[in-house]
Amino acid sequence: MSTSVTRALTATARTAAHGPYAECTCPAAIPTVLADRDDGTVVRHGTTVAKAHARDADRTQLATRLAVAAHPALSGVLLAPLDLPATELDGRPVTFWPYGTPVDPDAPRSAPWEEVGTLLARLHATPVEALPGPLPVMRGPHKAALAVSRMRRAHPPEPVAAVVERAWSALPPWARAESAPPGPVHLCHGDLHLGQLVRHPGPHGRWLLIDVDDLGLGNPAWDLARPAAWYAAGLLAPEEWLRFIGAYAAAAGPAVPSGTDPWPVLDVPARALTVQTAAVAVAKATAARRALDEIELALLDACDRMAAVPPELPAEAAK
């Protein structure tokens, strides 16, 4: 987003925080750009956050997702938007949210993995018939396909691209956003990672899930896939993975069968998220004209291993 538009979004956040006429007495450093991407620019002013969504965001689907986030059934699971009218800025819809404290990226060992697992289980178990609708499709597989397209447009070195392409082509069509997901669908987040978690500033300081841009109906295993992919690639410690998946199972999350090996259910989504992450990494490295770093090479190596072994299929998908 251009500097002028970012400045305008900052002014929008200030107005949302104080009203159009009240004097702002916040410290000069209060306006903060939290994220600035084509699919979402986020600015904070005091306790108010303004988000400019993607220009091509479906306004009807976004309105439904906002209504779901505000629904009492999701209280304590999703951060609810502020009760302010949505607006537009430079052709992008803008929504408003209370500020919450994010997970500390410099303290990965203290990440609240149990809370993430419990929140996802509660999200997935929410009765969809009680929610505003019609609910859109969860956009996780679509985002994976977009990541591969982004890599292709970057024209990385052929040997590198070939590794990612082989892993991608080995996935079933539903994981490439080419068909409907198997099995019953549930309410899903669609883009779960630790950056999608904030501690609410209220008296109880609860952790809540944020960012509803990809929220919708889909295979709930997708929301477990990124931690599973990190674990499989050696980027998430086994004890952290067990804290996460154990909390999800203890909260009766529907994505994985109780008391059985979860991997047949998680294998395909985890592979898809590995390809997605690797494709984005390769695209960024190519654009910056730099070599892949250690973590990016680990993702590429994971793609190489995946391509050599067919994905597992859960029993019901194999019938």
UniProtKB/TrEMBL annotation:
InterPro entries: Aminoglycoside_PTrfase, Kinase-like_dom_sf. Keywords: Transferase. Its EC number is 2.7.1.-. Pfam families: APH. One of its GO terms (molecular function) is transferase activity. Residues 60-257 form the Aminoglycoside phosphotransferase domain. The keyword Transferase applies. This is Aminoglycoside phosphotransferase family protein. It comes from Streptomyces luteolus.
